[in-house]
């Protein structure tokens, strides 16, 4: 539960031009967002590939490259007359989407705790990444100021909140699983134990701050959730054992692996495919969750698409599965997918209940913004999530007061909005 220093609600009537930079796993995206008011905006963006050479070794070449890309983008935007000149002494505000674990000490200050994904630049660890980016941009005289560093869940929440100010939660249901929500500042013990909210410059005059839950790490103590032996096996194969356990039960990166392990178990017990597997099925992490979508979406009488996944993707011999076996494979996918959606609903219900002040008021509408391929592409995922919310919160409440919608602009528009909110408080 990380205080993000992002305070204040959006009305949708904010205006102005703001930049954002998203450092993803393979690509980097630079955006110019023009907020037009009434929840409307225009977006100019360009993707840059991050050369592998910049992901390892020293940090400076990576930050110099990021600054160069921002410079290139600004030149193009100026040429197209999309970037208006600023009055003297002003600089363009930029929101930096940085989805690596950070020790944040201000809305525009955060030291890197460790690299994840395929990055390994040891000299950056424990350094303020905002300062590193700012220095690189200053060396190129770009006249850009990084005013906020934004987690992707926070970006998702803000992007949706600009269109719908009732947005209370932002959730990522993709490779990983995480959420951010608006909390009342006096309730944030991590904050109030250290700061007097009434006088601290980050919160003075504000009542709410966005919390990045990092809920992927929920129940790392293994006391709350009923875990199966397949969950334990998935965990054991990962780099960080006993970490991110909630994520390992529910996120896109792991569902395909859970399916693989359950199928192998059924095969070993000779309940499937006469006890035969394939080299691919035997290999850890060989089943992408996207294939579960294809399996679940199959409505043909003979489960023809399931057969194709088994034979073309998993390399099972032609004609090696019966219809009943394909039905079993489909059913296993449905159980894993359903559990994932239900766990997501549990997390959301917890956050909604945490804001009892809103939940108990029948006149308050609550919007939940979701981003990620699981929610966007996995068949029935939104319906399953909603059905589980109805069980937990009541049908009337969910149908009449809660909306659950896809918000895909988090890292671009959301980070730009974060930059705008931070600049306003400077
Ligand atoms: P990220 O979270 O990395 O920003 P995504 O939201 O696209 O990116 O999520 C990628 C994850 O979603 C991967 O784990 C992938 O296996 C899974 N995925 C991609 N396409 C699908 C699909 N059609 N159905 C289900 N899962 C998918």
From TrEMBL:
Name of the protein in question: Phosphotransferase
Pfam family, one: Hexokinase_1
GO cellular component, one term: mitochondrion
Family matches, as Gene3D superfamilies: 3.30.420.40, 3.40.367.20
EC annotation from Swiss-Prot or TrEMBL: 2.7.1.-
MF term (GO), any: fructokinase activity
Domain annotation Hexokinase N-terminal: ranges: 1-162
PROSITE patterns: HEXOKINASE_1, HEXOKINASE_2
GO biological process: glucose metabolic process; glycolytic process; intracellular glucose homeostasis
Keywords for the protein's UniProt record, in alphabetical order: ATP-binding, Glycolysis, Kinase, Nucleotide-binding, Transferase
Main EC class the enzyme belongs to: transferase
Organism: Thamnocephalis sphaerospora
UniProt pathway annotation: Carbohydrate metabolism; hexose metabolism; Carbohydrate degradation; glycolysis; D-glyceraldehyde 3-phosphate and glycerone phosphate from D-glucose: step 1/4
Family: Belongs to the hexokinase family.
Xref: PANTHER family: GLUCOKINASE-1-RELATED, HEXOKINASE
